[in-house]
Write a structure and sequence with these properties.
466 residues; five-stranded mixed β-sheet
């Protein structure tokens, strides 16, 4: 971590790793305890609210957890509102827990500032994310990036005088709260725009006079599943599942399949085909469809997709794509889907029975024209809101950079020098190490004890201070 900071400081603009020249740096492990979560047994997990909320990586930054734990635990793994948490995989996010009392799961750690008269917990939360982001960017990984508690302890945090820490926190809380409110308002407006688009689309499609026809009656060819083939360098191009997104098919997302032209021929796609996802871990995503555009070179589709080839004398491919994204069709697919081993699935027979609102071709063209006009306006508005959101996020980042560079609030010559504060921190840390080494570990019997109430313990008091 020190190498990352040294590299950043060698640049003209070290960004969120900035430090005023009068400040010192201090190891995070010298000002705070790092508590790793426990590997709680999944046989005690439930979604029925039995026991305590189990705070997992995905819950860091949220105010609740959808998973509960009804088994025994040690009180040291209790989390209270106000505790500082870090997700140790993926994005390495730091956040203050704002939910109810819960339990600290594995791959989540808690930070506890030892002495708030030496280092501000709020300042720690504000400054830490930039360092975690730098670690994440430097961490190589094949799948998910992992963070260790030792790495967290070794982060060289900036150490301003305590009074200056408090001034920075007060100033940032004021500015960031207003900037955050503005960004949240813009994001809410963009979400409302998306909801409006869905309602307008449904209104265009679901007029009472429009005939309802099953997909089976609108096909030029029978539905067909793709084929699963092993990969082979230089083989025949086949689409990846990730090629399906946002109602379209990205033909550039391909892999090479171990088959020849003759074997691939029944599974080729052409312009106007509509590909539907056969399965997904989310009910909301199973049965999504994507329209194939211009096909410049032969490519097949995999077994994870079903090919729908519409009869263009009955339904426009563009209209099929629009109707497929409607709430009317979505409800049918979600009602049809069946789950196996946590995966929601649909098949050809189910799809053939999906009913769509299908007017004549002239009316289909009119609906498409009206939708294009509406969608282009909403797209433009969404892009403008996106730019404003980006500007708000950049403003928040700029405020943090100014604060950590020592330019947001003035230095006070009457403050205790950072060098003296650092010396006090090191002295207190040295005095506490023998006590920590002498602490006994809890017994297996305590680990299996039934859930207990721990109101008034040290963690509760710490949460109140925060």
């Amino acid at each position: 971590m020190q190498e990352i900071v040294d590299e950043a400081e060698s640049r003209l603009n070290p960004g969120l790793l900035s430090k005023h020249e009068s400040w010192e740096r201090v190891r995070l492990g010298d000002i705070a305890n790092v508590q790793n979560g426990a590997a709680f047994s999944s046989r005690h997990f439930n979604q029925d609210g039995e026991g305590l909320p189990l705070i997992r990586i995905r819950d860091v930054g949220k105010a609740e957890s959808g998973t509960y734990y009804a088994g025994g635990y040690e009180s040291c793994y209790l989390v209270y509102p106000g505790h500082i948490l870090i997700g140790m995989d993926g994005d390495f996010r730091v956040a203050i827990w704002k939910g109810p009392r819960g339990l600290l799961n594995q791959r989540v750690c808690r930070l506890s500032v030892r002495n708030p008269e030496l280092y501000s917990a709020r300042f720690l939360v504000l400054v830490l994310q930039g360092y975690l982001d730098a670690i994440r960017d430097k961490t190589s990984s094949v799948t998910v990036k992992h963070l260790s508690s030792r790495t967290v302890e070794d982060i060289p945090l900036p150490l301003p005088p305590l009074s200056e820490q408090c001034r920075i926190v007060a100033e940032l809380d004021d500015h960031l709260s207003r900037a955050s409110a503005a960004v949240q308002g813009l994001r809410a407006a963009r979400m409302r725009g998306g909801s409006l688009a869905h309602r307008l689309r449904d209104q265009l499609l679901e007029a009472s006079w429009v005939p309802r026809l099953p997909l089976k009656s609108l096909l030029a060819e029978r539905l067909i599943n793709g084929r699963s083939v092993p990969t082979r360098v230089g083989g025949f191009p086949v689409l990846r599942l990730t090629a399906l997104h946002d109602g379209g098919i990205d033909l550039t997302k391909q892999k090479s399949g171990d088959w020849d032209d003759v074997q691939a021929a029944p599974f080729l796609v052409r312009q106007g085909d509509f590909l539907v996802s056969r399965g997904n871990g989310s009910l909301r995503l199973v049965g999504r469809g994507g329209l194939v555009g211009d096909v410049l070179s032969p490519v097949a589709f995999p077994d994870t997709l079903i090919r729908v080839r519409p009869d263009v004398l009955k339904i426009r491919p563009d209209y099929l794509s629009l109707a497929w994204s409607s709430s009317f069709v979505r409800r049918q697919i979600e009602n049809m889907a069946r789950t196996t081993a946590g995966i929601y699935k649909i098949n050809q027979r189910m799809l053939e029975g999906v009913v769509l609102p299908v007017p004549n071709l002239i009316e289909q063209d009119a609906v498409l024209a009206r939708w294009t006009a509406v969608a282009s306006g909403l797209t433009y508005s969404g892009e403008m809101l996106g730019l404003l959101i980006e500007r708000g996020v950049r403003l928040q980042r700029s405020l943090l950079i100014e604060a950590f560079a020592g330019r947001l609030v003035p230095q006070d010559p009457d403050d205790e020098p950072a060098s003296e504060l650092l010396a006090r921190i090191k002295a207190q840390r040295a005095a506490s190490v023998p006590q920590q080494r002498g602490r006994s570990r809890r017994t297996a019997k305590e680990l299996s004890a039934p859930p207990t109430s721990v109101t008034g313990d040290d963690y509760q008091q710490e949460a109140l201070r925060l």
